[in-house]
Amino acid sequence: MYTGLLLVVVAAVALLYIRTLTVGTVLEMGPGYFPLGLALILLGMGLTMIVKGLTTAGAPVGTVHLRPLFFILLSFAAFGLLVERAGLAIAILVQVGLAHFASRESTWQATAITAVALAIASSIIFVWLLKIPVSVLP
Questions:
Q1: pLDDT tens across 43-88, in order?
Q2: Which residue, 106, 102, 103, 104, is CA-closest to 114?
Q3: Which helix (H) or strand (E) element contains residue 12?
Q4: Are 53 and 4 in contact (CB under 8 A)?
Q5: What is the C-alpha to C-alpha distance for residues 16 and 108, in angstroms, rounded to an integer?
């Protein structure tokens, strides 16, 4: 239920944020078309999860673990700060490296392989194929 509530809040914030954007049509998509669709999908998923959480019995909510929450949020913040300054590849490497500390089960070898694979795949997909104007390296 709490996850559904989180999705509803995120969707509501997104809907408030994009309310001034032009949506357009399927053939002439405006800048608000994709964010609106994504926000509506999140809203629907969140409401579904809330209803399911209220109507079915389940295990009680466990304790909140702050370590994973902190390192995952820190990794997203680091990516946002680094992507324009250091390039996409370095930002992804740093993000995955910071996210490594969120779990005690992950190994440095698996983290390094994941980081390099994501950096290469993201560079190919977003910069080369989709031609998004972001530098790969500084």
A1: 999 999 999 988 888 777 778 889 999 999 999 999 999 999 999 9
A2: 106
A3: helix 2-17
A4: yes
A5: 40
Cα 20 to the center of its chain, rounded Å: 23
- Reference 92, options 65, 126, 68, 67; nearest CA is 126
**Alpha helices in 19-107, H assignment, sequence order:** 33-55, 66-82, 88-99
Cα 86 to Cα 103: distance, rounded to the nearest angstrom: 26
At residue 59, what is the residue type? A
The token pair at 123 is 């560079």
What are residue 24's DSSP bridge partners?
29
* b/e sequence 44-72, b meaning 16+ C-beta within 10 Å: eebeebbeeeeeeeeeeeeeeeeeeeebb
φ and ψ of 58, to 5 deg? -155, -175
Determine the residue type at 53. Answer: G
What is the SS3 assignment for 97?
helix
pTM, entire model: 0.62
Distances (CA, A) of 12 to 21, 29, 32, 69, 85: 15, 21, 14, 22, 31
